[in-house]
Amino acid sequence: MVKSSKELAQYFDHTNLKAFAVEADFEKLCQESMEYGFKMVAINSFPVALCKEFLKDSPVHVGAAISFPLGQTTIAVKAYETEQAIKEGADEIDYVVNVGKVKEGNFDYIKEEMETIVAICRKNDVLSKVIFETCYLTKDEIKKIAEIALEVLPDFIKTSTGFGTGGALLEDVKLMKSVVGDKVKVKASGGIKTLEQCLALIDAGAERIGSSSSIAIVEAFKATYEK
User: Fold this and answer.
1) Which residues partner with 94 through β-bridges?
2) What backbone torsions phi and psi does residue 86 show, to the nearest 5 degrees?
3) Mean local confidence (pLDDT), 57-84
4) Tell me: the pLDDT tens digits for 75-125?
5) Which residue is catalytic, options 39, 78, 129, 158?
6) Quick one: DSSP state of residue 55?
7) 120 and 79 in contact (C-beta within 8 Å)?
8) How does pLDDT run across 31-48, given as a tens digit for each residue?
9) Quick check: is 56 catalytic?
């Protein structure tokens, strides 16, 4: 059980991945993250350098979403985008798997893709997260990617982009966690808007929460448990 709002805040990747976000939005995102003590700002790769500058005197990480939100770029392109984001200051990388290759059953491709991105992150001492986009996958497909992750050992496997037809489900977090155990962490993201949802996902094994409702959730915790 989460014991304080400060502890809860550290679960959050505070998110703005909107196509129409402007500089003022990123400044606000960073200021909020510093004020509340969130773990990371989750952004597309373009504003990484900007957010790194906004956060230069804080412990808040900058997280770049790679091949977002579809995952439909080549391994070489994902690798280049990852390297560029790290060069510009990204502390964490969240990349989207090629869902089409999963649906084709081409798990050798998925493993090569994961190995490539994770190796770049590891070399640069940057955290790696693999986005499954679970809404498009069967339970067997989710399990298979998690098994690959157990071999490759990214830092996190992650449910969703928040741009698909569905988001984080309790059953998917439990399934992912059941496969990787304590060797890989699980991030729940996509459609997480309430405190109840958030705490249930943490209880199911999520060690990071991606949400644009981070402030509302933390404030709800304060109102419920710290009044």
Assistant:
1) 65, 129
2) -65, -40
3) 98
4) 999 999 999 999 999 999 999 999 999 999 999 999 999 999 999 999 999
5) 158
6) T
7) yes
8) 999 999 999 999 999 999
9) no
CA gap 136, 72 in Å, rounded: 14
Per-residue confidence (pLDDT) for residue 69, from 0 to 100: 98
What local confidence, expressed as pLDDT, does residue 1 receive? 84
Q: Which one is catalytic: 91, 94, 155, 172?
A: 94
Q: At what angle do helices 139-152 and 170-180 cross, to 10 degrees?
A: 40
Cβ proximity of 21 and 47 under 8 Å: yes
Side-chain-facing half-sphere of 146: CA atoms under 13 Å: 27
Active site residue 187: yes
Looking at residue 17, its amino acid is L
Provide the b/e sequence for 106-129 (b: ≥16 CB within 10 Å): ebebbbebbbbbbebbeeeebbbb
Q: Report the C-alpha gap between 117 and 138 in whole angstroms.
A: 24
Q: What residue ranges in 90-204 does DSSP mark as E strands?
A: 92-96, 127-131, 156-158, 185-189
DSSP 124: T
DSSP states of 56-101 = TTSSPEEEEEESTTT--S-HHHHHHHHHHHHHTT-SEEEEE--HHH
Residue tagged active-site, from 78, 129, 177, 187:
187
Q: Which two tokens stand for residue 15?
A: 């998110």
Active site residue 3: no
Question: Which token pair is 43?
Answer: 């952004």
